Amino acid sequence: MKLDNNEIIKQSLKRHHLFSKLTELQLNRVYQHSQIHKLAEGQLLFNQADKVTSFYMVLSGKIKLFRISPDGQEKIIEIVKHGEVFAEALMFTNQIDYPVSAAALSETIVISINAKNFQEMLWDSTATCLLLLGDMSFRLRKMVNEIDTLTLHSGTCRVASYLIQEMSEGQNSFKLDTAKNVIAARLSVKPETFSRIIKGLKNQGILTIEGNSVTIHDIDALKQHSLV
Q1: Residues in Cβ contact with 210 at an 8 Å cutoff, skipping those fewer than 6 apart
Q2: Among 24, 48, 155, 202, fewest CB within 10 Å belongs to which?
Q3: Is-contact 125 22, C-beta < 8 A?
Q4: 1-51: per-residue pLDDT in tens?
């Protein structure tokens, strides 16, 4: 049986740990103030400086969060994947505008959750407040680590670290599910530099890559590069 949008929203929220402590009444309130948005590849969800109205959860596809520099260069701040929530921290700041733009990297479906309504509801759910605090603390630690990586480590280190993160435990082969130029932008290297680093790792026998399929032959050597 095909589910309507309200049921999709409700079931998706119930499965996400951030909303797992809500009562049925609270969950109903959240999904009544939520909407589904279907985005084509490249379509904007919101622009930097748009007024903050909602935070979001990705149901399928990927969202890039980015800023445009004064010289017109795009800097990707984060890539948000299936099941992840973003822009939730803005509920607790005095900032009334989104600090970044958000656009779909592929065909993407997101749920928008009314931020004002959700913030008001938090007064009745201490458990959800704690979950939200834990999520934001984890994200802060992740961003601090990324700043260290981008500022203190070489391009080769960043690429090697990214490849290690993409590997599943016990598997030495995987597919890059994001375009290589987007990965390069996320790692703050030029596309040609990214290609040169991959070629260097390939020439050392550490990996092979065909299209978007990557096979790691020497994980220990790759880990050594990630520590340079």
Answers
A1: none
A2: 24
A3: yes
A4: 345 677 778 788 888 888 877 788 888 888 888 999 999 999 999 999 899
